[in-house]
Design goal:
The complex is a heterodimer of chains A (about 800) and B (about 170). With about 800 residues, chain A is an alpha/beta fold. Chain A is built from 23 helices and 33 strands. In chain A, the strands form 9 sheets. In chain A, strands 14-13-24-23-22-15-16 form a 7-stranded mixed beta sheet. Chain A is globular and about 85 Å long. Chain B has 2 domains: about 5-75, Arc Repressor Mutant, subunit A; about 85-165, Glutaredoxin, CATH 3.40.30.10. In chain B, strands 2-1-3-4 form a 4-stranded mixed beta sheet, with helices on one face. In chain B, helix 1 (about 10-20) runs antiparallel to helix 2 and helix 2 packs antiparallel against helix 3 (about 50-60). The longest helix of chain B is centred in the middle third of the chain and has 12 residues, at about 100-110. Classes of the chains: A alpha/beta (about 800), B alpha+beta (about 170). The interface of A and B includes residues 161 and 183 of A.
Chain lengths: ~800, ~170
């Protein structure tokens, strides 16, 4: 027997266990069931519910299995008379104050208390006095509270402290008066708050959007994939009558462990938004008419046939499935048009020839936990990819030095080495400075960068970051989702890769959306075909297609107002077209204005689809719900159009067949993030004048999220507003609460002024993709601000 | 989290007092000073704590605000509502109960025309609800008036003490 294992006997069964493990871990692994409420394998041990009491030989009292470390030769009885008597006693106490409202409780039918009470409770309570009543608090639009049902297991409190990194709930009062809550009236703000719904063993915390809408036993469970970030969290859609009623996490320790971000959990509400398109529409003489699919497809087909191939532009987003992205580019290229792109939020594609075959994380998600140093460049990882932030948080709590450089110093839930705001040009200079510091420490810096570095004298912060990355054995430099908005994305990426190379760090991407990796692999970029093969003829990028308007645009799942980094450019581009075909799930005024043919699109829960996450993990799921109205799966729409217009190649009879075709193209794909550098790297000087900087806020990333009602009621659902530092505001003669006229490239909007010291001077921060900023120009660019 | 929120600042004296307590704990265990901090802040605030004051303590000690609310609401020596000038706490735990604490409480309630947990209308005396053992069992029944222990109570002695309060 090694020193690390001990053997114990549970109910006569011999088990070997890791020394120091808690008894309940060992019995769980062996499939021996012990009732519990407060214990959770992802949380610290509280041992406050006392439900897991078991008999341990020679121990004078029953012992809680969750807080009793195993000892060699220990003999445990989980079912002995003494153990069961102790468990029954605990159960009786827990039920004293628990209301008998199971028939109207959302948790009914899937309640841990109900289940355990069936096994250990008495048929009739001996308690005849008044039960405790706790008044509910409103803790926000996502979580419904019924605190009278609370049994004080404190899982939600521990989740906040240990996992979410925001201690928002607590146990106030004592004895009979203890209650779980926020004490003051306030909404819970964690972007992972919904997990307390799953953790709560009773009906005290339930999902507010799905409250009172379905009983657990009426629901069917379908495996699905989250599509809002590059993690691709695994989830279950719970449906009734073909309709998604709620979403819960699906355990996958390599991807999302047991958690789900609120965005992934509650975005399903968007499926049933009033704005959902339910039938095909055709514009005739400026009037919209509902038409049959056949008519709409015929109209789309003839429009596509009529347009000259070079005069067309095919645009989509990184929310589309791999099958749709593949068929879209196949349709475009089959028609002789290479103008196909998903990068609606990336103005600078100058360096696209050097892009890797797909934007890869460079490592597995689980590896992030074991990093010793990490630098996130231009990404609000906490809001962009909450579960990546969760992994980085684990690393940080374990002693890793995590640093973030952004256009705004976003608040983090873990200790950071550096978390600073830098204007776009300063961000480039900072990375060059770090490279210079590494060079001065004797690191090997690529030759192309050395000339630019010769003149740089590294600052203290740059040296600190260089030390942190250079001295760590396991370090990474991650290019965040905000990087694509940067006007000098190409140079930013080159400098980030230089820093990574010089410090021996893994270089990785945190791409936007749920399927940017899939878009690259499917060939949904103008210069690369499926499998990353260079296209024979490179087409135009999204920006180019809009700057020189095409005669025909084919928009697949694109919202002209909110999906572009430069909505004004999109507006002018689309306005210049003769025909716009929109395959889309949601109606909007801008779409009705620009489009001529609208084909209703089924969304992720309604289709068989594949998504590729940042690790390069292909994940697919089958349709969970019936498409809304007459909406159809995107791959089917594209296949039908392809069949009508192109000879051969569009005979797929299932999404699986499409996926198989993409897979065949990707067989020789090897992931590699090494970036060939430009001849001589530059460090651009800062531009003069006021600059707009931005992020795409967490609940604005895609159309589904933007239509999810409950998410849109949270504090993270930002509206267009102009944020700036106090110093900048003083310079512009503005104060908090003023309205300001913001002008970019001749278009303007009137926005409320917020003062935030997290924004660098010389910049104003205006979120992109939200109502209020859709009339403005590029997310990152010159701007003028006047008092309105 | 906006720090400017309903900004109540700790007094200079309170900060000095908390700093003195912080000296006694490891530098990375600032929350250890929370009881002392709340006691000081309550003392300066006419005997009770408010949410903004607890927020100020939380911010000063770098603790989540809810963690300070938990402490403030847990311990019976902290009051979360305005109370009268003098705090009278009669022990009703086992030793004092056996020596007649209940009679003492009943007498005080009758005399002041308030129930435990209430303050007199003139703002003079606050009668603490259900005080537990104050570790003076040998002298039961006992009570604590402000910060002073009074043991071996009789009705007459209680009258004398209470009448002596301003």
């Amino acid at each position: 027997m090694s020193d690390d294992t001990v053997s114990i006997e549970v109910d006569g069964q011999l088990l070997s266990a890791r020394r120091g493990a808690m008894l309940i871990e060992v019995t769980d692994a062996a499939g021996i069931s012990i009732p519990r409420f407060c214990y959770h394998d992802k949380l610290s041990v509280a041992a406050n519910c006392r439900m897991c009491l078991v008999e341990v030989e020679k121990a004078p009292k029953p012992m809680p299995a969750c807080a009793t470390p195993v000892m060699d030769g220990m003999k445990v009885y989980t079912n002995s008379q003494r153990a069961v008597q102790a468990q029954r006693g605990t159960m009786e106490f827990l039920l004293i104050n628990h209301p008998l409202d199971c028939p109207i409780c959302d948790q009914g039918g899937e309640c841990e208390l109900q289940d355990v009470a069936m096994g250990y409770g008495h048929g009739v309570s001996r308690y005849a006095d008044t039960k405790r009543v706790v008044f509910d608090k409103d803790i926000g639009p996502l979580i419904a509270t019924e605190m009278t049902r609370c049994i004080h297991c404190t899982r939600c409190v521990r989740f906040g402290e240990e996992i979410a990194g925001l201690r928002e709930l607590g146990a106030t009062g004592r004895g009979e008066d203890v209650r779980i809550g926020t004490y003051v009236e306030k909404s819970v703000v964690s972007e992972m708050s919904g997990n307390v719904i799953d953790l709560c063993p009773v009906g005290a915390l339930t999902a507010k959007p799905s409250r009172y809408t379905a009983r657990a036993w009426e629901l069917l469970q379908h495996a699905g994939i989250a599509t809002h970030d590059c993690v691709g969290s695994n989830l279950f859609h719970h449906t009734r009558d073909g309709r998604v009623m709620r979403v819960v996490p699906r355990e996958n320790h390599a991807v999302n462990e047991v958690w789900l971000s609120d965005r992934d959990r509650f975005s399903y509400e968007g499926l049933y938004s009033d704005a959902r398109l339910r039938q095909p529409l055709l514009k005739e003489a400026g009037e919209w008419h509902a038409v049959e699919w056949e008519t709409a497809l015929a109209a789309a087909g003839s429009a596509l046939m009529a347009a000259a191939p070079q005069e067309m532009g095919f645009l989509t987003t990184s929310s589309a499935s791999l099958e749709e992205l593949y068929l879209l580019q196949k349709l475009a290229r089959g028609l002789g048009c290479a103008n196909v792109d998903y990068r609606l939020r990336q103005p600078d594609c100058d360096d696209q020839a050097h892009d890797p075959v797909m934007p890869w994380l460079g490592q597995n998600l689980g590896d992030l936990e074991h990093l010793q140093a990490a630098l996130v460049v231009a990404g609000n990882v906490r809001k962009d990819q909450p579960l990546v932030a969760h992994r980085l948080r684990k690393a940080a709590l374990d002693g890793a030095q995590v640093s973030l450089l952004n256009v705004r110093a976003y608040e983090q839930t873990f200790p950071t080495l550096v978390n600073d705001a830098l204007a776009p040009a300063a961000l480039l200079q900072e990375l060059a400075g770090i490279a210079a510091a590494l060079l001065s420490q004797g690191a090997e810096v690529p030759a192309q960068a050395q000339e630019a570095l010769a003149k740089i004298k590294p600052t203290t912060r740059q040296r600190k970051l260089a030390d942190s990355l250079g001295s760590a054995e396991r370090a990474t430099v991650l290019l965040g989702s905000g990087a694509q908005l940067h006007p000098g994305y190409s140079v930013l990426r080159q400098w980030a890769s230089v820093v990574a190379a010089a410090s021996g760090s893994v270089f990785g991407y945190l791409p936007e959306g749920g399927n940017a990796a899939g878009a690259w692999l499917a060939g949904c970029v103008p210069h690369r075909g499926p499998g990353g093969v260079s296209a024979d003829t490179a087409g135009q990028t999204a920006g180019e297609m809009l700057r020189t308007p095409r005669r025909l645009y084919f928009l697949h799942g694109v919202d002209p107002e909110f999906d572009f980094a430069d909505p004004q450019l999109a507006h002018s581009g689309l306005s210049g077209a003769d025909c716009v075909i929109a395959v889309t799930a949601f109606e909007s005024d801008a779409l009705l204005e620009h489009a001529d043919i609208i084909l209703p699109l089924a969304l992720h829960a309604e289709i068989d689809a594949t998504y590729v996450n940042a690790e390069g993990r292909w994940q697919n799921a089958n349709a969970a719900a019936r498409p809304c109205g007459k909406a159809r799966a995107g791959w089917k729409i594209l296949r039908v159009l392809g069949n009508r217009l192109i000879d051969g190649g569009f005979d797929h009879n299932s999404a699986r067949a499409v996926r198989g075709e993409v897979q065949a193209c990707c067989e020789s794909v090897r992931l590699d993030n090494s970036l060939p550098l430009a001849e001589a790297l530059r460090v651009p000087a800062a531009s003069r004048g006021l600059l707009r900087v931005a992020e795409v806020p967490i609940y604005a990333v895609d159309a589904l999220t933007r239509h999810a009602m409950a998410l849109q009621k949270t504090g993270d659902a930002l509206r267009g507003a102009v944020h700036m530092s106090a110093a900048q505001a003083e310079k512009e003669k503005l104060t908090a609460g003023d309205t300001a006229r913001v002008t970019q490239n001749g278009s303007s909007a009137v926005l409320l002024v917020h003062i935030e010291d997290s924004i660098p001077n010389g910049c104003v921060w205006i979120p992109s993709g939200v109502p209020g900023s859709e009339k403005l120009g590029p997310a990152c660019g010159a701007v003028e601000v006047f008092k309105a | 989290m906006s720090t400017a929120q309903q900004g109540v600042e700790l007094s200079e004296h309170a900060r000095a007092e908390i700093d003195a307590w912080l000296q006694r704990f490891p530098y990375n265990q600032k929350q250890s000073a929370v009881l002392a901090a709340l006691r000081e802040v309550q003392h300066e605030n006419n005997g009770y704590l408010t949410t903004p004051l607890m927020d100020a303590v939380a911010d000063y000690l770098g603790m989540p605000r809810i963690a300070v609310y938990e402490v403030g609401s847990f311990y019976s020596m902290f009051e979360l509502q305005p109370v009268a000038r003098h705090c009278v706490a009669v022990c009703t735990n086992i030793s004092c109960m056996l020596t007649g604490a209940d009679t003492i409480v009943a007498h005080i309630e009758e005399k002041l025309q308030i129930k435990v947990g209430e303050s007199t209308a003139d703002g003079r005396i606050f009668l603490k609800p259900e005080e537990e053992c104050l570790a003076a069992c040998a002298g039961g029944p006992m009570m604590q008036v402000d910060h002073v222990y009074h043991t071996d109570l009789t009705i007459e002695k209680v009258d004398q003490i209470l009448d002596g309060l301003d």
